[in-house]
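Thread: Newbie trying to understand structure tokens

Hi all, I'm a second-year student working on a class project, and my supervisor (Dr. K.) asked me to get a predicted structure for one chain before our next meeting. I've only ever worked with sequences, so writing a 3D structure as a token string is new to me. If someone could post the tokens and maybe explain what I'm looking at, I'd be very grateful. Here's the chain:
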Amino acid sequence: MSIDFLVSVLDSMENPARVNRNNAANIVLEQPNLLTELVNLTFSITQEVSVKAAWVLEWICTHHGIAHIHSHLTTFTHNISKLTFDSAIRPCAKICEHLAIAYTSKKQNSTQCILTDEYIDLIIETGFDWLITDQKTAVKAYTMNTLYLFGLQKTWIHPELEHLITTKIIHESSGCAARGRKILSLIRKNNT
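---
Reply by user tm_fold:
Sure, no problem. This is what the structure looks like when written as tokens:
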């Protein structure tokens, strides 16, 4: 199957309803070569199809396992900072959170072996950029959690994150402030 087929599948999605994302994800999973095309379309940032590709990629990572992104981490981590559509940034922020959860899990898993320092640093850098720019609440919520988790191993992150939350994020929307307070509590609990 070709990229044209995948584009037609994505174009036929009217909205991000669960059934639409699930149907498109099943088509991609039945033909694994389409996963590479899906990742590439996610980062074709001048085309609105990138938003639908991001929705489906996040659905696959959330409902079928984060390991699906493993062979595409170079493309993913080197391009997340280039995303421009809000509706593509949110699902990619959630994928970053899934990667951080898997990486910091006490249960041994394949993400811990494949997620290199380079990939982590690119996720962290993009995460801080997302927190200081005008992003939706969901992006900031996923990102704060991602940075908190990576900060359990990279000690410089928590002080920077704490400063950003207390000086900026706590004064934003009620959703951002609530997640910020939760992350501050986790940071302070971790420090004791």
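A couple of things are worth pointing out once you decode it. DSSP finds eleven helices and no strands in the chain. Residues 10 and 49 are 7 Å apart (CA to CA). Feel free to ask follow-ups in this thread.
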